[in-house]
Amino acid sequence: MMVSKKTIAALLICLVITMACVKRAETLSNCAKQCMPVCLKEKGATIDVCGKACEKYCEQISGNSKFKGKL
């Protein structure tokens, strides 16, 4: 049984996408990792957008916001 070049290419693309998602998950704080499932349920949500939004949310609830005291 020979595997076609298209099948191999598709598998490699899936592997690259999976690696990128895992890398992103490794850089998230524990707080953001808990936030992600809730965020991803929203219509149109993506991993990248939710990762950024969850990190900002976690900064706000922990008191480490960049805008602390500037309002």
What can you tell me about this protein's structure?
- Helix 2 packs across helix 3.
- The longest helix has 23 residues, at 5-27.
- The model has no long low-confidence stretch (mean pLDDT 81).
- The chain has helices spanning 5-27, 30-40, 47-62.
- By secondary structure, it is an all-alpha fold.
- The protein starts with a helix and ends in a 9-residue tail after the last helix.
Defining traits:
mainly alpha, 3 helices
**Assembly classification:** single chain
C-alpha geometry = elongated
Low-confidence parts, pLDDT < 50 over ≥5 residues? none
| CA distance, first residue to last residue | 67 Å
Q: Taking all residues together, what is the mean pLDDT?
A: 81
Largest sheet: none
| Proportion in helices | over 70%
Radius of gyration: 18 Å
* Count of helical stretches: 3
SS strand fraction: under 5%
SSE topology string: HHH
Short note summarizing the structure:
With 71 residues, this protein is mostly helical. Helix content is 70%, strand content 0%.
